[in-house]
Amino acid sequence: METLTDSYVLVVEDSDEDWDTAVQAAQQHGCAHRLIRATDGGTGLDLLRGNCAPPLRPALVLLDLNLPGLDGRELLAAIKADLSTRLLPVVVFSTSSNPRDVAASYAAGANAYHVKPVSFNDHLSKLRSLFDYWLTNAVLPPRSNIN
User: Fold this and answer.
1) Contact 22, 72 (CB under 8 A)
2) Is 145 part of a structural domain of the chain?
3) How many domains does the chain contain in total?
4) Is residue 32 a contact partner of residue 7, using CB atoms and an 8 Å limit?
5) How many CA atoms lie within 13 A of 18 on its CB side?
6) Residue 30 domain-assigned (yes or no)
7) Mean pLDDT of 133-144
8) For residue 113, is it within any domain?
9) Which of 34, 42, 44, 64 is an S-S bond match for 70, by CB 3.0 to 4.6 Å?
10) Are 59 and 34 in contact (CB under 8 A)?
């Protein structure tokens, strides 16, 4: 089965404002990756499993924890439990600074955890830094290791 790879970032985010900020940050960063949005964990999982189209194999998953339906915690667990998606880098980007959420996210396999800043400019700057690190500086797993 064909998969869509490399040139995508999956943003699992229910907030329109946070989505718009991610898009603006990607544009300012000069991100060559297309951002694809899922507004809930179930849709994100469908995209990754290919339930509606070829499976999406993004270069990065940017994941909010507090989502309707299947939440970010459950989606993270599903991504890391599936052999075909477990190597995908998942960055949790949440309003929660609760140490339990941080610890649980790392225990479930998150590659990083960031708290969303309250200030728009700080939020934008943090997202630009994330895109820069994960899409420019980090060495990601070879695509051949992700089914």
Assistant:
1) no
2) no
3) 1
4) yes
5) 22
6) yes
7) 83
8) yes
9) 42
10) no
Cα distance between residue 35 and residue 40, in whole Å: 15
Residue 15 lies in a domain: yes
Task: Determine if the pTM surpasses 0.70.
Answer: yes
HEC-encoded secondary structure of the chain: CCCEECCEEEEECCCHHHHHHHHHHHHHHCCCCEEEEECCHHHHHHHHHCCCCCCEECCEEEECCCCCCCCHHHHHHHHHHCCCCCCCCEEEEECCCCHHHHHHHHHCCCCEEEECCCCHHHHHHHHHHHHHHHHHHCCCCCHHHCC
**Residues 125-145, mean pLDDT to the nearest whole number:** 86
Lowest mean pLDDT among 3-17, 63-77, 99-113, 124-138: 3-17
- Return the number of other C-beta atoms located less than 10 Å from residue 71's C-beta: 18
CATH of the domain at 65: 3.40.50.2300
Q: pLDDT tens across 17-64, in order?
A: 999 999 999 999 888 889 999 999 999 999 999 887 788 889 999 999
Asked if residue 144 has pLDDT above 60, the reply is no
